Amino acid sequence: MNNRATAPLYEALIRHADRQPHAYHVPGHKQRAPWDEPGADRTYQELLRIDVTELSDTDDLHHPIGPIAEAERLAASAFGADETCFLVGGSTAGNLAMILGTCDADDLLLVQRNVHKSVIHALALAGARAVFLPPKIDPASGLAIAPSPDTVRQALDRYPEARAVFLTSPNYYGMPADVKGVSEVAHERGVPLLVDEAHGAHFGQHPDVPPSALQGGADAVVQSTHKMLTALTMGAMLHLQGELASRGAIRQALRMVQSSSPSYPIMASLDLARRQLQVKGKHMFEPALKATRVVRQALVELPFDALEVADPLKLSLYDRTGRLSGFELQEALEREGCLAEMADPRHAVLAFGPGSRPADGEALVAALRRIAEAGSADGEAAGLNGGASGATVELASRGFGEIPEPVRIRRHTGETQAIPLDQAVGRVAGEWVIPYPPGIPMLFPGEPVTSDAIAAIARWRDRGARFQGAADAAFRTIQVLTDMRRRS
Amino acid sequence: MNNRATAPLYEALIRHADRQPHAYHVPGHKQRAPWDEPGADRTYQELLRIDVTELSDTDDLHHPIGPIAEAERLAASAFGADETCFLVGGSTAGNLAMILGTCDADDLLLVQRNVHKSVIHALALAGARAVFLPPKIDPASGLAIAPSPDTVRQALDRYPEARAVFLTSPNYYGMPADVKGVSEVAHERGVPLLVDEAHGAHFGQHPDVPPSALQGGADAVVQSTHKMLTALTMGAMLHLQGELASRGAIRQALRMVQSSSPSYPIMASLDLARRQLQVKGKHMFEPALKATRVVRQALVELPFDALEVADPLKLSLYDRTGRLSGFELQEALEREGCLAEMADPRHAVLAFGPGSRPADGEALVAALRRIAEAGSADGEAAGLNGGASGATVELASRGFGEIPEPVRIRRHTGETQAIPLDQAVGRVAGEWVIPYPPGIPMLFPGEPVTSDAIAAIARWRDRGARFQGAADAAFRTIQVLTDMRRRS
Question: pTM of this prediction?
């Protein structure tokens, strides 16, 4: 029997609702539409029926033995894992749990420097020591990808006590790491590879899309099922394969960082998203792929270009003439009713997905055409906007070339203050310092400030790099922790 | 203008959806119903329209300046806070953030012993030292409430360096702490009071319901808006008042423990739940109160009774004859289509809420009547089932009477093993040890095992206490951490 076409958790919730039991349990709405607002009732009414709690027929996310366990088994099979944990706290929860489940206090983790903030938070919560590995730089864009297998090998030679290697793949722009190469290096030493694949839940599910991190041999992988597949937001999965990653400790860490009242609609949407993937297969991506092809073909006649990346569902558009920055392009697109995923100083990044239609490609082309026409009426190009150059790539390699000493990210409840950049050595950073490109953080909040870091920031600042979100964008000053506490 | 009747976040999401923008951002479903399953489409279709991401008109939970900030301001006003943070990770996220935002590593926290597991997890993640305060025992039921103001005063005398006092109020059964008394004691020393009010989001909102923790003077309070009000599951709020609790550090801790892709439907449901509370006021609780009155009146003719507690929306039913344990009563009710919130060895606990109707009271009475009739056909009572007795209360006072030494809860990735109880002193506990009643944990996972704890467990075991969820319910052995690591 082909049970891949079933959605055991969703179906269990509907069966439960259809029985119409009397509810003397949370939530307080008791599965009835409680709001007088007619519109709100319509928005939530059907969903409230399945917004239930742990009951004898609805299972328990934190100790699954019924329909949640069955739904997780089907997901493991669909994504090629030995075991899959449903997440209701997004990939954030998965990243926290992979690291908390792998590192006791003082343990050492090899982790690429350009990671999602949840990874830095996990290091701070775990009290782990991190060796931040320099990533490879994409020569065409100057953007950071992930460390190479060679870099990981050097780091493991120097730090054989490392508990794990942590990679992000793909990056926000759709560029994957060499997961296979890194996993081989790690497994030679018996070290597990943990991968934040938040932006790659569709990887390995279509011939035009790169293989997944699990196919590359990763031991634990987190995927945002909501980002590139069709779950509700915050629906994500943590996949485990093999015996190197400690499954029990990772499950235990999930119990620490996720709600003890997890959302059944989000869990059921994971079940339905997996079912859809298995029933429709690669066909579910065709409308989105067609939309991106429409855009790529039209770009030859427009003053915009898109980064060449492995993930065909990501379009990182930039202005070939240098007139519009990535932020300005994002804003111009928004005025045309086209909402991008994010922007950096050079690129507006667009994410297509199973819900995209070919008409979305046509609408984007029409918007770009109008933006280009308005621009040629405006006149001259503004010139340099932080794009890739030989010098950028060389600088990136120089600034992040060596395997550094381990550092601890300090969790703190104190205040921050601005001090002159050249007086910050020996203090603890109080803000993110991320020049674009390459998008590699030079300092994390809680990281001890070294003279190397200050020299690198000054060098990049003087070369015109843009520091996104910095308190002082010109970096004459930097935020550091005070020693002040609110109470002493 | 009475803007309490608006729901600014929900309305912003509907306006956004009505504009029908082209979405090149996450989530992958692009606000369209993507599932072929006809039932699933119906369940989720309307909701998908508002399952969006951070956009220029939808604001950012982690740095709110638009409709989320406005919705939080209205919530602060409705609940009597100076500032309110919407939570999408349940009260779990709020408890983690209150403690992580208050305690750096090695800081000392005064915390009652009978707390939700998220509080223990927070202590482990914070690396804080905890002084566990003995709770008061309710004489009628033998159940633990919260520490008295006198206990807190003694503890503050001995540990003036404490960063905060942490209480849970009400407990699961609807018994509140003396929040006002404790907050006065804490504030005399300039120490903030943090309260887990997960089960009391309705407190202070109806004349028959006890005052809220904020009304009692607490500085930071977490409420599960989904439990006793009408938000979606995982929707909760963290309220702050005054200047003693560090707002910036607590907000920063929320950024660490909550998803960087928070769920808009959950956030909007918080906005709608607050709006409903303000528009309907105390009338929204009348159907539920009527339902509980129906049950209480009928109990006089039935062999069941309900604990007398301050919260009229909680019914903790027990079998006066001692025939059915709380677990058996819960199961018998379930066979009658009545689903309770939880059970302990003596009680089945039922939670009523704004979605309850008088018919739920009548259905419960009919179910209890059928259970009683089946029971009298069955014959004899089973006798003792762990209820309150003078001896229990005296034992509880004796076992938990003194202010103990500070302990650290150890976070660990290792395995556990069973060893004989009398050999466990000096090891680290690997499981929860909770006798019912009083429901006070004698050991937490990660807590060092003392000879006092072992003596108390043996004493309670020998008196016939029930240990819920223990690996060896007879407590000849206990789970402790091994020193084994999967890799060395």
Answer: 0.95
